[in-house]
Design a protein that fits this description.
Length: 439
């Protein structure tokens, strides 16, 4: 590890780490090749990511089979497109398996149905390939976008600073590698695929990665195999971690950068700000850049720009600079769509210390022996799942919608007319999902 980098702390207890080991916790943090896994329960988190990868691998395989089957009955350009797609899906499965190899070990996992039932199907930012386009933007065709982002961030850095920077939610580390050309950078993210791609490139090795544009320009653009290239000399240490449990000593970091993070992380902005306040040194600077596309179900979590100085003030920050500019966003040359985003960049100085927020999971989640409380949302979900399972158990190759609806209303669960519409809607949704997924 580079001596100029900040030191690290145990994400579980906050005590200093010695070569990735926490003596008070009697715990050693594992490495995925050059990537330390500084998560509070690293083995549990890696097992969870392996399950997510199994689902993704099965999805890629199902899509490949579907494209091959369609190619077998197609002719001319359609057959060429479908064969090209099937081969590219097989290629991507192999590429990802190779990139994730340090995490997979002796990979044996639950059946697809069990994984689906256990909701390993996740929101985009928790899926293995949820940010595949960021990999391509960072390492294939997006250098102008990375340079535009770096230029705006450099404009907000403290004068002449060559102090270390910690990029949180660094993704595939393209921006971190650019900023690391003039200073040491720690790049933390919670997604192992993004960091394993970055680690491979930062070690000077190329990597293959396939792009599947949703609006391909031409036949060859339906699937494009890229050979990702290592960056020029840079100084970046990737860390697999979770910002909610920052693996840094209190008051230790001079500069943190968040880039396209604040509106996707599962924390309200004020709590994220207090978390960053805790790890920044007195007078330390937080630079943020990205969109303000907050979409939380709770509108209180979705601030607009004018609210942000107040939120920062309440979390011990003073906003120093704030600017806006239109930036190109993920403009693949293989894609027909072109997006621009009105990006906000601000810098804020830590002017006071606020108590660190308690981002820990509830005890019943952390300790498997504790009873899980019957929360209203869990209760509602349990009822919904029972109804779901009951309807599916009625599908036996003999009963029709009317018979199932009649049984539903006979049990007093719904009036007959509503039951018919509900059962038909439910079965139609299952059928349409099957068509979409290619099962
Ligand atoms: C919209 S992407 C932006 C990534 C990168 N900054 C870029 O612009 O390409 C958000 C990133 O935040 C990461 N992320 C989300 N929640 C996180 C958390 N709690 N801790 C660490 N990383 C997180 C995701 O894995 C993802 O890479």
């Amino acid at each position: 590890m580079n001596d100029a980098l900040p030191s690290f702390a145990c994400p579980a207890c906050g005590n200093p780490l010695h070569v990735w080991r926490c003596n008070p916790c009697n715990a050693s943090y594992p490495m995925l090749e050059a990537v330390p896994v500084l998560l509070p329960e690293p083995e549990m988190a890696l097992a969870d990511w392996r399950n997510r990868w199994r689902l993704e691998r099965q999805r890629l395989y199902a899509e490949e089979r579907r494209a091959s089957a369609a190619a077998a009955t197609a002719a001319g350009i359609a057959a060429a497109r479908l064969n090209h797609l099937a081969a590219a899906l097989a290629k991507q499965r192999a590429c990802l398996e190779s990139l994730l190899a340090p995490m997979l070990g002796n990979d044996r996992g639950g059946a697809r149905e069990t994984l689906l039932g256990l909701r390993t199907r996740l929101p985009g930012h928790h899926a293995v390939t949820g940010y595949a386009t960021n990999v391509l933007r960072d390492w294939a065709w997006g250098q102008p976008e990375t340079l535009a982002a770096a230029r705006a961030i450099r404009g907000h850095l403290p004068e002449g600073a060559t102090t270390p920077i910690t990029v949180l939610g660094a993704g595939a580390c393209g921006l971190a590698a650019e900023l690391g050309r003039e200073r040491p950078v720690v790049a933390l993210d919670s997604n192992p695929l993004l960091l394993l791609v970055a680690a491979r490139l930062l070690a000077g090795t190329t990597a293959e990665f396939v792009e599947f544009p949703t609006a391909p320009r031409h036949l060859d653009d339906v699937a494009v195999v890229h050979l990702l290239q290592p960056p020029p000399a840079t100084n970046v240490q990737p860390i697999l971690g979770d910002i909610r449990f920052p693996p840094f000593p209190a008051a230790s970091l001079p500069v943190v950068v968040t880039h396209w993070l604040i509106d996707v992380i599962d924390l309200p902005l004020g709590v994220l700000a207090a978390t960053l306040n805790h790890v920044l040194e007195p007078g330390g600077v937080w630079i943020n850049q990205g969109s303000l596309a907050f979409t939380n179900g709770n509108p209180a979590w979705n601030p607009c720009l004018e609210e942000i100085p107040e939120i920062l003030r309440a979390s011990g920050f003073e906003m120093l600079t704030c600017s806006e500019e239109d930036q190109p966003y993920q403009q693949s040359p293989h894609h027909r769509q072109r997006r621009y985003e009105r990006v906000v960049t601000w810098s804020a100085r830590k002017v006071g210390a606020v108590p660190p927020p308690d981002n820990r999971s509830p005890d019943w989640l952390a300790d498997g022996a504790q009873p899980i409380p019957l929360l209203p949302a869990f209760q509602a979900q349990a009822t919904a799942v029972r109804v779901h399972a009951w309807i599916m158990s009625q599908v036996n190759g003999q009963r029709g919608v009317d018979a199932i609806a009649a049984e539903l209303s006979r049990q007093g669960l719904m009036p007959p007319e509503e039951a018919r519409a509900a059962v038909r809607g439910f079965v139609r949704t299952m059928f349409e999902e099957m068509l979409r997924s290619g099962d």
